Amino acid sequence: MAQPTTRITVEFDGPVHFLKTGAPPHTWDITGATRLRQRLLLATGWRIVVIPFFEWEPLEGMAEKGSYLRRKLASDTMY
Length: 79
Description:
Helix content is 38%, strand content 28%. The protein has helices at residues 32-43, 53-56, 61-74, and strands at 2-3, 8-13, 18-21, 27-30, 47-52. It is an alpha+beta fold.
């Protein structure tokens, strides 16, 4: 999802965007293709808000999901 006038894009990244690393409990690392796409977007002035599946799936109900999205959009972190 992208908003061209503000140059903000929201990515809902599923499992294909990540690689499991380490022994259980696993951590997740972004794949090379996803990292390249993000670098290209950043280089052209876009702000990227990433919603990883492993953070989204545990959320319960619309209120919790809405709160999560508001926090992510308000964050200064570019990913």
